[in-house]
Amino acid sequence: MLRVLQHYFPVRTFLLVSVEALLLYAVITAGMTHHLWDLLADPASSEPENREVMRALGGESMLPRDAAFHDAFSAGLVTLTLLLSIGLNRLYEFQITASRYERASRFVESAGIGIALSVAFVIVSHLLGADLVYAFPGLSLSRKIQILIGTASTAFGLLYLGRFAYHALIRRADLDVRVLILGSRGPAHALANQIIAHPEAGFRVVGLVPEPTSTIDRRRSDKIESPITASEDAASDATRALILEGVDLLGREPGNFDSSSGNLAQRAPGEEGLPELLQKLRVEMIVVALEDRRLTLPIEDLLRARLAGVEVREREEVYEQVTGRIAVAAMRPSYLIFNEGFRRHPFAALLKRINDVVVALIMLVLLWWVMAIVAVVVRLTSPGPILFTQERVGQDGRPFVLMKFRSMRADAEKLSGPVWASEDDPRITRFGKFMRKTRLDELPQLFNVLSGSMSLVGPRPERQHFVDQLAARIPYFRLRHIVKPGVTGWAQTNYPYGNTEEDALHKLQYDLFYIKNYSVLFDLSILISTVKTVVLRRGT
After folding, report:
1. Hey, is 360 helix, strand or coil?
2. Phi then psi for 460, rounded to 5 degrees?
3. How many angstroms separate the CA atoms of 534 and 493, rounded?
4. Which of 144, 145, 140 shows the shortest CA–CA distance to 59?
C-alpha cells in the first residue's frame, strides 16, 4: 500500500486512478484538439473547415500551436472535473464497485454530473472571455458543447468497459498479499476480521497459527481491559475457519519455555515448521498478533523468514494500515509511548493556527450570505433562538462555549437532561435535519476557530457529562483532549453517526490515529473529504 497525506492507498487503487486519468485525458484531448490537427501539420491548409478555424483563431490573435496548448490545458481541467465526479460517487471504493448493478448506476450518475459541470464551466469561461481555463480556441460555443459531450460520453464508455476488465482481472488473478497471522486469540481475530471487511486493502489471510494453551489466560501486563473493547476481539465464523488445526509452531522454538513439562520446547523430527508452512501456503507477510509473546514468539524462525524475503510486521501496524485507526489492543502505554508518531513541534502548531485563521476568514467571506439565509430560515421555521450555545470540553480539558445554528427544539433537554442525539431524533426540526446532513449547522463554529478555542480539524468536542461517562469506560479517552477540538475531523469523515459507547470507542480510535499522524497536509486531505461528505449529504 502507498502512504499519501497520512492515508494508506492500495496500489491497485492508485494504478486504477492513474490509468483512468490518463485514458480520460487522452480521449478528451484528442476530441477537443481534433479541429487543429490538419493546421498543425500544414498551417497553409485551404480546406473549408480549416479556413473557418483559422478565422476563429485570428479573431483571438492565436496561432494553431498556441491554441493546441490551451486546448490541452483545458482538457486537463475537464479530466479533473470528470475524475472528481467519479470519486464523489465512490467508484474507487472496492465494496461499491464490486456490484455490477451499483457500478453501472454510479457510472451513469457520474457521467451526467461530470459532463454537466464541464459544460457549465465551458459556458461560463466563454461568457467571461477566458482564454485558458475551460477554453477551446477555434471552436464556437455550440461546437465546444457538442464535441465535449460526445467526447466525454465516449471516454466514460471506455472507462466502464475498462472496469469490467479490471474486476475480471481482480477476481481471477491472486493479487492480494498473502498473510499468515501468528496467533489465534482476540488480537488475531480482530485483525483478521478487519482484513476480511476491507478487501480493498489488498491483503488475504491464509491462516491463523494457534497459540499454546499454556498461555491462554495470559495478558500483556500493560494492556488495560475494558468491557467495551471486548467485542472488538470477538472471533467470527470466517476467522475461526482460518485457524490452522493441527499446526503447533508457537512455544516450540529453542529458547522458549514449555511450562507444562518444565523443559525447553523442541520440534519433533519431521514435524512441519514455520519455513515449510510459509512455502506450503505461499506466504508473503507474517503478522505477529499474539496475546503474550514472552513464551511463544518463534524468534529464530521469524529471522529466517525475514532473511528469506518474507515481510514480518506487528499486528498494530497492519491494523492501522487497513482501518485508518489505532487498534484497541494497541491502546496501552508502551504502544503510545514508544511507537512512531504523537510528535509535537511548536512550528507545526503555529502553522496549523495560521492555516485555521486564514481558511476560516476565507470561508466566512465566501459563505456569509449562506449563513444569513440559514439564520433567517431557522428563525422562521421554529420558535427559539437562532444560535445554539453549549459548554464543551476543549484542549487540555478547558471548557469553552461552542456555537451552532439551532437544529433542535429550544426545549430539547428540558425533561430528559443530557442525552445523545439519535439518528432520527424527534427533537430535531425539519430544517435541522437538512442542516445536519449538509453540516450547515456547524458554520458558526468558524468564530470558535477564530477565537482559538477550536481548530478546523480535530476531535469532535463533547460535553463534560459525556466525557466523564466515557472516560470511566474507555481507556485513554481523555487523550483526545491533547489537541484542540475541530469543526471536522478524521473520525467525522470516516465513521457514521453514533450514539453509543461502542461508537465513541471507534471514534476515539480514529481521533488517536489523527493525533498520532498529524500534519498540515493530513488536515488538508480531511478538509477535502469533508467537502465530499457535504456534497453527498452524509453528515451526522
Report:
1. helix
2. -70, 130
3. 10
4. 140
Which residue type is seen at 230?
A
Q: Picking from 34-48, 105-119, 158-172, 492-506, which range would have the lowest pLDDT averaged per residue?
A: 34-48
Contact assessment for residue 42 and residue 73, using Cβ atoms and an 8 Å cutoff: no
Distance CA 497, CA 486 (A): 16
| Bridge partners of residue 181, in order along the sequence | 208, 287
The residue to which cell 509535537 is assigned: 344
Rounded-to-10 torsion of CA 472, 473, 476, 481 = -60
Strands 177-182 and 7-9: unpaired
Give the pLDDT mean for 146-158.
93
Q: Is the pTM higher than 0.90? A: no
User: Grid coordinates standing for 327?
Assistant: 487498534
Give the Cβ contact number of residue 129 at 10 Å: 8
d(CA 182, CA 177): 16
For 346-364, the pLDDT digits (tens) are: 788 888 999 999 999 999 9
Q: What is the DSSP string of 254-316?
A: TT-EETTTTEE--PPTT---HHHHHHHHT--EEEE--S--TTT--HHHHHHHHHTT-EEEEHH
- All three cell numbers of 83, joined, read 475524475
Rg of the Cα trace of the chain?
29
122 within 8 A of 134, measured Cβ to Cβ: yes
Residues 284-308, mean pLDDT to the nearest whole number = 82
Residue 20's φ and ψ, nearest 5 degrees, are -70, -35
C-alpha 380/C-alpha 406 separation (Å) is: 12
Give, in degrees to the nearest 5, the angle at Cα 453 between 458 and 516: 25
d(CA 169, CA 158): 17
Mean pLDDT of 462-468: 90
Which residue bears the cell 494553431?
64
Cβ-count burial 460-492 (b if 16+ within 10 Å, e if not): bbbbeebbebbbeebbbbbbbbebbbbbbbbbb
Instruction: Quickly count: other Cβ atoms within 10 Å of residue 115's Cβ.
Output: 23
Binning pLDDT at 50, 70 and 90, where does residue 538 land? low
Residue type, 397: G
